[in-house]
Amino acid sequence: MNRIALAAVAAAALAGFIGGGVYLAQRGPGDDRFAQCRTGRIGGDPAQLGGPFTLIDETGAPVTEADVITGPTLIYFGYTFCPDVCPLDNSRNAEAVHLLDGRGYEVRPVFISIDPARDTPELLSEFTGYMHPRMLGLTGTPKQVQAASRAYRTFYRIQDADDDYYLIDHSTFTYLAFPDLGVVEVFERDVTPDEMAERVACFVDSF
After folding, report:
1. What is the CATH number for 135?
2. What is the pTM for the complete model shown?
3. Which of the residues 30, 138, 139, 155 has an alpha carbon 20 to 30 A from that of 61?
């Protein structure tokens, strides 16, 4: 995906995110237990993101958001055939989780496929297995994947293609979610593993 396409994708997703309301305008600093953990780079309210979903895990079993978000969880939407962005982003997420493991924080990385036609549970298991032993891959029917994507206000669009080697334009945010609270933070692509680990640890401590 070229820079122009990536910028357009990110802008579309960010516009939907900001549409949920300006976080700092709605709540004062004293009302936010995570205020010291936020960077303020994204102005939308994270609480407007996320919601119920039903997907299929790497064993083919149906799961809901309650089954998946049982503790601190990093969620990313992508696909295994992605040539560069998805492997890099998920490697970053996995490295951050490894760093957190070393500090005694157990965080679950989750990879939700936006390509159910190609990403079988078996293929997802292989992909996540390369990243981190706790990374969970999820897929589902096209309608189930679309519903999960809409809940998190992500964007994806399959490029025109006449064969099985099509690419998908998509947003590239990583979401930090907690049980009962839902999404509490959104990480952009330029956040390093060390920065992500440090900020996630802050959120966990504040939780």
Report:
1. 3.40.30.10
2. 0.83
3. 155
